[in-house]
Amino acid sequence: MDSSVARERALDAAEELFYGRGVQAVGMDDVRSASGVSLKRLYQLFPAKERLVEAYLERRDTRWREQLAAYVEERHGARERILAVYDWLGRWFDEPGFRGCAWINAYGELGAMSTPVAERVRAHKRAFREYLDSLAAEAGLPAAVGGQLFLLAEGAMVTAGITGSVKPASEAREAARLLVRAA
Fold this sequence. Notes:
Elements: H1 3-21, H2 28-35, H3 39-45, H4 49-73, H5 78-93, H6 102-110, H7 115-138, H8 144-163, H9 167-182
Helix pairs in contact: 1-2, 1-4, 4-5, 4-7, 5-7, 5-8, 5-9, 6-7, 7-8, 8-9
């Protein structure tokens, strides 16, 4: 197995395990067992578990933002694209195995102990905020609206993760609709 295949298998296993059970509950031996990558190779690819967590969050960030943008871009009209963010969140919250926001979860587990993981989480949140800022600007809304839309989305993510309900997405969507209309 070449390094790129081993890396992808390790990341696939890490994502399933870290997201499903939590980062601290999963050891490198668990990732080895789930991936079929030897422990020696796993440590060659990721010299520390922290590096594997960073890589998992980075790869998930790329996919998450690409999927969100693809969904939103299918909508016509700037204001409709803003509301589509919350529609997409509702679809995400309804996926089997949804356990809340991977970055919030990782930050809650490791943020105080791991500067690299905290920075990876901050980079994801910063990129999401910038995306919402760009949607608000495209709609001709005041600059502050992007941050308010971000807080609505983040609140929906936390609430959905805790309650196991998709309802926070529609509630945040309605609040965003009122905010956009008022702005």
